[in-house]
Amino acid sequence: MSTQPLNTWIQIPQNSDFSIYNIPFGVYSDDTVKHHVCSAIGDYIIDLFELERAGLLQVNREVFDKKYLNNFIKLGKSKTKEIRLKIQSILCDEKSVLKTDLVFQKKVLKKQSAVTMLMPVKIGDYTDFYSSVDHATNVGKMFRDPENALLPNWKHLPVGYHGRASSIQVSGHSFHRPKGQQKPADSEKPVFGPTKLLDFELETAFIIGKSTQMGESISTQKADEYIFGMVLFNDWSARDIQTWEYVPLGPFLAKNFASTLSPWVVTLDALEPFRTKGYEQIPQLLPYLQYSGNKNIDIKLEVLIKPENATETKVCESNYKYMYYTMEQQLAHHTINGCNVNVGDLMASGTISGPESREFGSMLELTWRGSKPLKLNDGSERKFINDGDTVILRGYCQTNNGIRVGFGECSSTVNPAKNNN
Predict the structure, then answer these.
(1) Do 230 and 300 share a domain, yes or no?
(2) Does the residue 15 lie in any domain?
């Protein structure tokens, strides 16, 4: 792993997710700006509209005065990569006008704490995969057969389903506990009411950066050309609703009530130095799913639960490198039948669990269906997620010499009981 040394004139806190090696993209608003495309460095956002208004990025600045990143992404990876490198250059240039002109600097650099981050992309379609072998094995052991946990198709293709895009929200939102049908074990008939088994799912997602036409397929070798970047993703689940409804077509009301994504899109270019070897895939996959090289990514992930009016507790530490199927394989499989994709489409990894119990990416696994409650720092216990709880996802990559590229936070809150009526 090699990363070209870069030195910026901006003071960056130690262990900041937003180092000079990152330069992610998002959209912000504040008291004076309705919506501008931005990047991040340390504790600051970088207003790219203002940077371009000074003639520093050499692109039509209108793409930076948009509610979403879609128009910016449509410039193409060669152009967005050029812009990212130019931003790095400006932030490393001691003679840059951004450093020397303090009035201009104040327009461009704003504290992240003083702005509101918006949904980064307009999502047309959303697909969720089921690609962690440890997660799939755990679920199979719980609900099917401990000796034959994986279904026969699992090691032949990346299982996925089409999800609901309209209920995906950016980090910081809250939502009502969902209601639906559940079938208690001691009842012959279903009952209706709020879910009793609300769960998080630790995931990442990738954003499509290049559209295709119906009938086109994307190979594993070409897939990276169609992936703009990655975000953190919490695919909330209502386990009791899911258990009753999922046969034969899969989850519906158990999943479509809310999902949460982080506001910063970290580019594949920033993540490239952290590529790592994936699983040996046995049995051998069909040719269209085969790939070469290191395609997994070493992204350290964690989940914390913060009860209402209490401190947070870390309940999970996992890693994206535990994914059995890569993003490239997921995209190749998604399009092998000629399904077209569009800029801004979101494709989620599925729950990311590791081999150790502390690395399980859901409460379903961490508490083993509620049989092993977790103790939180405030002394309370959790089998699943309570009203008033905030669930926080964090993720970052880091080299041995401290170079760090992170995603920020992906957080959301279940409304307190008094607001869930």
Answers:
(1) yes
(2) no
Peptide bond into 263 cis (omega under 30): no
Decide if pLDDT at 301 tops 50: yes
Number of Cβ within 10 Å of residue 375's Cβ equals 11
Asked if residue 292 has pLDDT above 90, the reply is: yes
Last residue of a domain, one of 55, 89, 117: 117
List the single range of 46-55, 107-116, 394-403 with lowest mean pLDDT: 394-403
Q: Is the pTM of this model over 0.90?
A: yes
How is residue 234 written in tokens?
A: 């919490």
Q: What is the DSSP string of 43-96?
A: TEEEEHHHHHHTTSS-S-GGGGSSSSSHHHHTT-HHHHHHHHHHHHHHHH-TT-
Spatial CB neighbours of 239, under 8 Å, sequence gap ≥ 6: 195, 197, 198, 199, 254, 364, 384
Regarding whether 107 and 208 lie in a shared domain, the answer is: no
Reported as type and span, the H/E element at residue 335 is helix 327-335
Taking a C-beta distance cutoff of 8 angstroms, is the pair 89, 97 a contact?
no
pLDDT tens digits, residue range 215-237?
Answer: 999 999 999 999 999 999 999 99
Range of the domain at 338: 126-419
Mean of the pLDDT values across residues 339-364?
A: 98
| DSSP-derived secondary structure letter, 146 | S
Q: Are residue 111 and residue 139 in the same domain, yes or no?
A: no
Distance CA 289, CA 334 (A): 11
Which tokens is 356 given?
A: 């150790």
Among candidate residues 74, 98, 117, the one where a domain is terminated: 117
**pLDDT over 70 at 137, yes or no:** yes
Half-sphere exposure of 40 (CA within 13 A, CB side): 28
Residues 112 and 255 in one domain: no
Tens digit of pLDDT for each residue in 248-291?
998 999 999 999 999 999 999 999 999 999 999 999 999 999 99
Check if 135 is active-site: yes
Question: Which of these is catalytic: 35, 135, 333, 334?
Answer: 135
Cis peptide before 248 (omega within 30 of 0): yes
The per-residue pLDDT for range 173-182, each reduced to its tens digit, is 999 999 999 9
